[in-house]
Each structure stands twice: as C-alpha cells, then as structure tokens.
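Recap from last week: sequence in, structure out.
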Amino acid sequence: MTDSKPDVKDEPDFIDNNSLDGTKTTPVFEQGTVDPVYQAKAHVLNNATQQIGMGKYQWELFVLVGFGWAADNMWPIITSLILQPVALEFNQSKPPLLSLAQNIGLLAGAIFWGFGCDIFGRRLAFNATIGITAVFGLIAAGSPNFAAIGCFAALWSFGVGGNLPVDSAVFLEFLPGSHQYLLTILSIFWALAQLLATLVAWPLLGYRTCSAEQTTPCTRSQNFGWRYFMIAMGGFSMICFILRFVFFTLYESPKYLMGKGKDAEAVAVVHTVALKNGKTSALSVADLEIHNAEGQQATDAAAALKRKLEKVNLEHVRALFRTRRLAYSTTLIIFVWAFIGLAYPLYNAFIPYTLSSRGASFGDGSVYLTYRNSLIIAVLGIPGALLGGVLVEIPKLGRKGALALATILTGVFLFGSTTARNSNSLLGWNCAFNFMSNV
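Predicted structure tokens:
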C-alpha cells in the first residue's frame, strides 16, 4: 500500500484529523504526547461542537465571559485611578507599592486558577474568580491604612488573575471553530470596562478627592471619593457574579468531564447544549469509548496537571524553533507579547498620575480635568476593539498584518505624547494611543 504523502525525514506523525463529517481540520497535537487517548477524544468533542454550531448558549456565554474580560482590565484601571488619592490620604511616600501588591495577586491568581481549573473544574473557577474579586473589592472601601488597601488589592487581584485564563478556556471549549474570531471581539469588553471605570470615577473622584496641589493635610472626610468608587465597582462586579451564578446555568466543560473519565456526562452536556440551541447532536458515548482501545486514559488530578504542563514541556518548545522561519516567527511573537505585556499595564497604571502631573505643569492639572480626560481616552478604546475584530478577517491583512500595523502605530502615538506642550495635545496623543492599543 503506497502513501501519497512525501517521505520527509523526521516529519512528526499526527493524530488522524478527519472530522465526523469527513472534513479535514488542522492538527494541534503530535502523537506520542502524554495522553493520546485524551487527545483523540478531545478531537471528537471539537467536531461535535462544530456540528452544533453557534447558538443561544454560546451567545449567552459570550456576554458572561465578557464580564470576566471586563474585570481583567477594569480592576487594574481601578488601582491606577485610586493610586493618587490613596497615597495622599495615607501620606504614602511610595504609592507604586499598591500596584506591586496588585501584580503579586494577579500572578498568584493566574497560576492557581490556570492550573486549578483542570483539577477542580471550569464551572467552580468560572464563578469563584469574579466572586472573590467582588467581595474583596467591596471590603477594600473600608481600608483604615495603606497596608490594608495593599492586602485587599492583592486579594481582589487573586480573583482577577484567573478571569482571563479560565473564561477563555470555558468559551473556547464551547465555541465552534467557525466562530473563533469572537475571541478577538471579546476585547471590546476591555474597552467598555475602562470606559465604565473612568465614567464612574469622574464624578466620585473628581469632586471628593484631595488635590496634589493643596497645602493642607488630606483628611478622610475630604477624600471619601475613592471609597465610594470602590463600593460602586465592587457592587458592579457582584452584579456580574449574581448574573453568572443565579441567572445562567454553566454546564461543566465536556473536555474536563472526559478528562476525568466521565464520558457519559461529557456526551450529555453536548446534547444539552445542542438542545438549548434548538439542534441535535449525533455524538454518542461509543464515539469516545472507541478510543479506549488505544491505551489507558489517566483520569486523576495528577494526570490533568501533567497534561497542562505537557503543553509547555521542552519537546513542544523545541518544536517552535524546528525551522529557521518558525524560530524567527516564534521569537518575534515572544518579544511582541513581552513588550506589550510590559508597556500596556504600566501605561494604564500611571495614566491618571501622568495626566495630573503633566497637567499641573501645563497649568490645568485639576482633579476634575484629570478624570474627565481619562474618560475621553477610554471612549476611544471601543471603536479600536471593533476595528481589530474586522481587520483580522481581511484576507490580505489577517492577524499578522493587523498586529503589525496596530503595534507600530501604538508605539508612534506613545512616543508622540512626549512632544505635547499643552493639555489638549497630550489628550489627543493619548486618545490615539488607546485607540490603536485596543486594536
């Protein structure tokens, strides 16, 4: 029997990628990884999800996952907005320590929830992350000193850190491949979150906040705006939690159930989602169990953790540098993400401080004007996110072209802001930067 494929030396063998309807899909995992039975069953579930298509359940999930994406951007923005009034009230000489506490919590949350959702399930993590954020955000409003607000910032950030990895996993595992562009559109919730935070901050922080220019000590009664602001934002997150937990039924991920050896429950979830979408699914338990003949599937917590770590083991990392072109592409992507990951949070963490300090040097650094300008900047992020969703679907531009264009223009506008000689020009440069950074 002859093989039509060319005989390429050292070419990796892939799992069969014929879908249930006979079409071909792009291979993701190579044979020989830690659990080939799990991979084969995951492929069957992917095909079943594609057959169901996009429906009511996925659109509801899109909105609720958007709450998590919103929290991921909103709470770091909240920290930046309260940074100056908190430092003034508590007479703190090193206010960036609040941002440090936040980032420690974000790191711990991303690690814990990112790995934990493969052990104790997506459903628990999906609801708990935003619930933790809401509770500690509300408690932080009563902070008696700088150390307390720092601890609460780390705790609410522990919840925030899990929103993006958990919510993305939940959404993608129920999303058909034909609609994966919606993951890009989800970034509109980032822009809306920034808009909401600055919109609420403008009246609360703009009128009940000590000014950096005042010569008298900043008292709690003069500076109550940031506490009202924390109550408002914590309350909003609590509403998001209630909508998720009470008014929406999140079905456990079929892949998680299958990974635990609960094939029948995984199939039942697929059929339930299909029914909610007004469709039927041809998937049966036998479609999954047929792959048990290929070997023994590990279903304990250690196996789930091992599968997670397998994605970043040295063998897979080496595969990213297998050819000269692939190594070049991988290196560029790593550097782009590294610099964006450094620049974007730093910019958003200190934009209110920059507007205030630079505004003061221009003669118009009032608290009211600082938060008004922050709101204007936030508004420009919404059309930027929408434009990004359109650009990635343009054939001649695509994801690579959209990323390159947006990254270059973001850098140009950021450098341009250093040339500002008055408050209005600084506002203009920052609006252009936020528009492109959300693309």
